[in-house]
Amino acid sequence: MPLGTLDRTPPPFFKQGPSAVSKLMVCSALALFLMVADTRFRVAQPLRAVVATVLYPLQWLAMRPVLLVRYGAQYFESLESAQRWEEAARRKLAQQSHRANQVEQLTLENERLRKLLELRERVNTPSQAAEVLYDAADPYTRKVVIDKGLAQGIQAGSPVIDESGVLGQVTRVYPLVSEVTLLTDREQAIPVLNARTGARSVAYGDPSSQGGALELRFMAGNADVKPGDVLTTSGVDGVYPPGLPVARVAKVERRPDSAFARITCSPQALMDGARHVMVLAPISAQVLPRPGQDDAAAPARKGVRK
Question: What is the largest CA-CA distance in the chain?
Fold first, then answer.
């Protein structure tokens, strides 16, 4: 048979129908139509609801092993955390009980010694609670504003403390609010006492450090100061009551080219997160005037009357 007489067309059984490009265009148009219709008329919402209802049991069964592993890990982690917290709480309770017993004993001894030496009773510092409203608008200072002012009897110079230690000092008083300058402000200085050695010094604000810190200036290079030493108020300035926690020594740098050591301290109070504080009355407002001052003032008053 000659090759020219052969039929080259495929048999009807292998006919492909429309081309692939035509099918792609039709399916794309249908998909676009369904998307627009679903967006505008929610036509596929019933179908989604049916499919979700049918597949929910399968999803529930598939999630059981995952949830079991997750909840099991959380249970054991919570159990271990609770045991650690319980152990820490028991240890802290024992320490507080021991300290309470010591405080009671020391208080009794203090009362006996004062009676023996006929000393006057320690001045009880009046205080009132306040809430921090917001930080001051000046970005170059470390100040906060509290919700107590002249109407509540706040005085300029009053110490401000939180639950951890000394926070700062009232520097401006308005009728309803007051401005408190934090210890980490560059203009602040506070006399402190090293609880370990009993040495007195002055701590200055050091806002240049990250987060704000304090610095013990003009301390000799061979001064007995170690990291971890606790600094408290000395009470010699007539403003802060003695014994309030101020800071803890964080770093001591002894430089051979300088006669003074660079001592950096971290404040005990929450300088950035304090919300509730206590405003104390300055010691100078509670201490009685010296007898010499009364004697010197008496003739002056008599001369005025004449």
Answer: 158
Closest C-alpha among 205, 195, 90 to residue 142 = 205
Can you say how many angstroms the Cα of residue 228 is from the centroid of all Cα atoms in its chain?
20
Q: Which helix (H) or strand (E) holds 181?
A: strand 178-182
Buried b (16+ CB within 10 A) or exposed e, 223-241: bebeeebbbbbbeeeebbb
Q: With a threshold of 0.85, does the pTM exceed it?
A: no
CB 259 within 8 A of CB 208: no
Instruction: Please write the tens of the pLDDT for every residue from 135-181.
Output: 887 777 889 999 999 999 999 999 999 888 899 999 999 999 999 99
CA gyration radius for the chain?
39
Of 239, 236, 231, 235, the C-alpha closest to 269 is 231
Nearest to 195 by CA among 251, 260, 242, 262: 242
Identify the helix (H) or strand (E) that includes residue 267. strand 260-267
